[in-house]
């Protein structure tokens, strides 16, 4: 389950969260987390929460896979990429309004031993024509337009997917420089140096 805290005096926010949860329940794809149910809960301190019920994944995030198996085979990496791309394709081609996830990262990928499931769908935005407003995402997986707080399109998710696959394939995967210096011009050179050194997980 996931709990989203809503200020007790913000009925408008509560209505928005509930509406989005209901919309997310309509999404059906084998590589998207399934929203089974949602309800409002008030605790003993009068704090209000929207509780979202989802399937349980005992193996947790895909980052746990790296802890037990730090060297991913190329076939496994390709399988992960294909499954996430399939989920994104579903979101990006929805009608009448495509959806942008906006915060794709390894921590938002759950692993059941054979397949990955994209989660944390609360960050999604329905697109208006080609772009959607707002900036979110996580360093270092943000697309340039997200860093610049510009309008976001489905391309931001594709950028993030590339970063995720890179993080899973290259060692060391996104050291601290990625968080503190990702705006610097030498970032591109750091990436190229890692690739030229062939620091892949299957080596």
Automatic annotation (TrEMBL):
Residues 1-203 form the Protein kinase domain. It comes from the Eukaryota. SUPFAM superfamilies: Protein kinase-like (PK-like) (SSF56112). InterPro entries: Kinase-like_dom_sf, NEK_Ser/Thr_kinase, Prot_kinase_dom. Gene3D superfamilies: Transferase(Phosphotransferase) domain 1 (1.10.510.10). Keywords: ATP-binding, Kinase, Nucleotide-binding, Transferase. It holds the Pfam family Pkinase. This is Protein kinase domain-containing protein. The lineage of its organism: Eukaryota, Discoba, Euglenozoa, Euglenida, Spirocuta.
């Amino acid at each position: 389950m996931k709990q989203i805290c809503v200020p007790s005096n913000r009925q408008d926010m509560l209505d928005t969260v509930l509406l989005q949860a209901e919309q997310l329940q309509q999404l059906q794809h084998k590589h998207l987390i399934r929203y089974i149910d949602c309800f409002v809960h008030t605790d003993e301190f009068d704090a209000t929460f929207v509780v979202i019920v989802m399937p349980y994944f005992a193996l947790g995030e895909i980052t746990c896979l790296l802890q037990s198996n730090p060297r991913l085979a190329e076939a496994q990496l390709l399988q992960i990429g294909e499954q996430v791309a399939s989920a994104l394709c579903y979101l990006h081609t929805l009608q009448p309004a495509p959806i942008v996830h906006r915060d794709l990262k390894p921590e938002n990928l759950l692993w059941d031993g054979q397949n990955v499931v994209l989660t944390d769908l609360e960050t999604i935005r329905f697109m208006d024509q080609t772009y959607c407003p707002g900036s979110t995402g996580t360093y270092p997986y943000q697309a340039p337009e997200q860093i610049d707080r510009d309008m976001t399109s489905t391309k931001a998710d594709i950028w993030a997917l590339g970063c995720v696959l890179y993080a899973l394939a290259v060692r060391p995967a996104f050291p601290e420089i990625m968080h503190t210096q990702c705006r610097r011009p030498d970032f591109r050179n750091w990436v190229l140096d890692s690739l030229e050194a062939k620091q892949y997980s299957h080596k």
